[in-house]
Design brief:
Layout (H helix, E strand, L loop, with lengths): L5 E2 L3 H6 L8 E6 L5 E6 L4 E9 L2 E9 L5 H16 L4 H22 L3 H12 L5 H10 L32 H12 L3 H20 L15 H6 L16 H9 L4 H13 L3 H5 L3 H4 E2 L4 E4 L9 E4 L2 H15 L4 H9 L25 H10 L7 H11 L7 H8 L6 H5 L5 H19 L10
Parallel strand pairs: 1-2
Antiparallel strand pairs: 2-3, 3-4, 4-5, 6-7, 7-8
Length: about 450
């Protein structure tokens, strides 16, 4: 303990303490509280301090400035510090532990303040590069709050199914809340609600794998019995598939469409069973090989590398025609118009180009397909129904189920298919050519093969 005279501190006595001349500091000790003192510097700074001994070493701590600490509270703090030392605890370490605990509490409070909407937006942007454009668009659309002018038509956009959860905290996404949301939304739009649930389930799993959000959402949030009971059972649309006897009328109507790009695109959907976005995203330079009759589709199951499938001979002929049309310079009038706009003509990189679409490729072929169906009085069939038709009609050719699944990009369902059956392209081509030939024969399509390069 430092030397100097001890005296019981009073407010007036503390105010009168001064540093002697030619000294840097002076410490005055309290006679009432052991280890409690006042340090006064040559610069007239004055503060309460505490000094004690722990394991044979002197520990001196600053309690605080005498202008901000009341004498009584400073004395109580000094007594607390002495009690810690008497208990074998270093007050400095204790203060660090308190600070760390405080920071942890603040961090946890901040974590628990995260809302579903703000974390969802971060999740979507972080995963965007690994998703297809359609999958990304589903995430944006299903969590959109709506109220914006429609891109097509008049009026405002409607809120997405997940928008009702945007302002909820992650910690509030328990099974009861999700089941109530799901039941309410499923009553109005069951198909959309079922997809929203699947997107939400993947999001919750991502949160569980991300340290920043881990543990905020209850583990049984999407597995609770109430959630499973509220989940709508979505089945394929009845009749949303071409029948064998409808092929002739369908091909006749689609081949008669004035827009050749749309006509080939629709035929390609049926002949390949591809997803609409997969086929629309085909590029001439990277995805189409007319010489070896193959195409690479951006598969949401296989990942960014995509899947390679055969190109049957009739479809290869159609693609060859599209390439010639694509490389044919436009009329002088259009060239002049492009020049006036400061643009130059170049062949489109897309297999299915569109002059009106924002990204330059076919975007909305449903209207043309609907006109074709109405022209031959065929029942309504969606574009996804053409994909369904491929799988259904392939059974007429007795094609192995695994072949159809691999061409369409479905996940293998059986153990053998999953681990031991990855058919090479030439084997897929054998069956795919048979499927196309059967379709064309049933439709009565007459065509002449040509050599493509």
């Amino acid at each position: 303990m430092s030397e100097n005279i001890k005296a019981a501190f009073t407010i007036s006595r503390v105010d009168g303490f001064t540093c002697p001349p030619r000294k840097q500091q002076k410490i005055f000790w309290d006679a009432k509280t052991p280890g409690f003192g006042v340090r006064v510097t040559a610069a007239r700074a004055k503060s309460f301090i505490f000094e004690g001994r722990l394991y044979g070493k002197t520990i001196r701590l600053t309690v605080g400035d005498v202008r901000t600490w009341e004498l009584g509270k400073a004395r109580i703090e000094a007594s607390r510090l002495k009690a810690l030392i008497d208990g074998g605890i270093d007050p400095r370490e204790h203060r660090i532990e308190q600070q760390v605990a405080h920071e942890q509490r603040q961090t946890e409070a901040q974590r628990r303040s995260f809302t579903f909407g703000e974390v969802w937006d971060l999740y979507v942007e972080s995963r965007k590069a690994t998703w297809s454009k359609l999958h990304y668009r589903d995430h944006v659309r299903h969590a959109a709050e709506g109220g914006h002018p429609k891109g097509r038509g008049v009026g405002l956009t409607q809120p997405g199914s997940l928008s009702a959860l945007r302002h909820r905290k992650l910690s509030e996404l328990h099974g009861e809340l999700i089941s109530e949301w799901l039941a309410r939304d499923a009553a109005l739009r069951p198909t959309s609600a079922a997809l929203s649930y699947r997107l939400l389930r993947a999001f919750i799993r991502w949160c569980g794998d991300t340290p920043t959000y881990r543990g905020l959402i209850p583990e049984d949030a999407y597995q609770a019995r109430a959630v499973r009971d509220a989940l709508p059972r979505v089945r394929a649309k009845d009749g949303d598939s071409l029948q064998r006897e409808q092929l002739a009328l369908w091909f006749k109507a689609v081949q008669a469409l004035p827009n050749r790009v749309t006509s080939v695109y629709l035929q390609g959907l049926l002949i390949t069973g591809a997803r609409r976005e997969e086929l629309a995203a085909l590029r001439w330079d990277t995805d189409v090989d007319l010489k070896w009759r193959s195409m690479t589709l951006n598969d949401k199951v296989e990942g960014t590398g995509g899947r390679i499938i055969p190109m049957p001979p009739y479809l290869a002929t159609l693609f060859s025609e599209l390439r010639r049309l694509n490389e044919m310079p436009p009329s002088p009038r259009r060239l002049k118009l492009l020049k006036e706009r400061g643009l130059t003509w170049t062949p489109s990189p897309w297999v299915f180009p569109s002059l009106t679409a924002a990204d330059g490729k076919i975007a909305e072929p449903r209207a043309a397909h609907l006109k074709a169906l109405q022209a031959e009085d065929l029942p309504h069939i969606t574009l996804h129904g053409l994909r369904r038709s491929f799988g259904t009609l392939a059974e007429w050719c007795e094609v192995p189920v695994g072949v159809v699944a691999q061409i369409q990009g479905h996940k293998p369902s059986a153990i053998a298919e999953k681990h031991y059956r990855r058919r090479p392209l030439d084997l897929l081509r054998k069956w795919h050519d048979q499927i196309e030939e059967w379709m064309l024969n049933e439709a009565g399509v007459k065509w002449r093969p040509e050599i493509v390069s």
